[in-house]
Amino acid sequence: MSLNIIKQGAEGRLYLGDFKGESCLIKERFVKKYRHPELDSQITRQRMKAEVKASGRCLAAGILAPRILHSDLNTHKLYMEYFGNAQTAKQFIQQTVAAYDAEQTKEVLLHLCSRIGAGIGQMHANNIIHGDLTTSNILVNPKISVNQNQSEDADKDSKSEYDVIFIDFGLSHYNQAAEDKGVDLYVLERALLSTHSEQKYIFEYILAEYRRNCGKDEEVVLAKFDEVRARGRKRTMIG
């Protein structure tokens, strides 16, 4: 079968393909030559299994994630639902910043951040730890097509008509520990400060909605997050 490669990253390749008549995205994790072969195979299998389990748990909890159609541990390929019109949250944010003034940008991004914060809160309420929360691992999938000739106000309104979908669960695991949830939040904060340094308010917007959705352990988790953040800052100062 001929596969059309659409992206290659450090961990694998993404192809457009087909599974039992359904268009799908195929993620292939390739061999890491710098690892011992047995260790590489073990790590790859663990990450594939983690992705399958986490996607299933998210969907069962009402959190949007790709459906896994098939996994092949021998060829290290995952066949999953393909969102052809989606873009990453990173791209969405960058395009929004480029299109609007500062006040309008905050208005549009508040809605996005609320959706992201609610999703992460629901994940943690269900003890799902993502492990690699970045705006590159979140998709914005539009519900309607945007007419290029529409007015700016209509275009801005259309930006709220989308689903937020979490992807790339290779580093995920299932754990109720507040420490792990705090680390998940810290990873996200650091990623946002690195990628979207001019929009420092993004994480606070996300955290506000997270608090409303993360369940009864909210205060414990946020206290752990503060501890993790303090340790991270100490490491940064010491070098």
Automatic annotation (TrEMBL):
GO biological process, one term: tRNA processing
Domain Protein kinase: 1-239
UniProt keyword terms in alphabetical order: ATP-binding, Kinase, Nucleotide-binding, Serine/threonine-protein kinase, Transferase, tRNA processing
EC identifiers of the protein: 2.7.11.1
UniProt xrefs under PROSITE patterns: PROTEIN_KINASE_DOM (PS50011), PROTEIN_KINASE_TYR (PS00109)
A single cellular component GO annotation: cytosol
GO molecular function, one term: protein serine/threonine kinase activity
Reactions accelerated catalytically: L-threonyl-[protein] + ATP = O-phospho-L-threonyl-[protein] + ADP + H(+); L-seryl-[protein] + ATP = O-phospho-L-seryl-[protein] + ADP + H(+)
Domain of life: Eukaryota
Keyword Kinase attached: yes
SUPFAM superfamilies tied to this protein: Protein kinase-like (PK-like)
Family from the record: Belongs to the protein kinase superfamily. BUD32 family.
PANTHER family the UniProt entry points to: EKC_KEOPS COMPLEX SUBUNIT TP53RK, NON-SPECIFIC SERINE/THREONINE PROTEIN KINASE
Name the UniProt record assigns to this protein: non-specific serine/threonine protein kinase
Source organism of the structure: Drosophila rubida
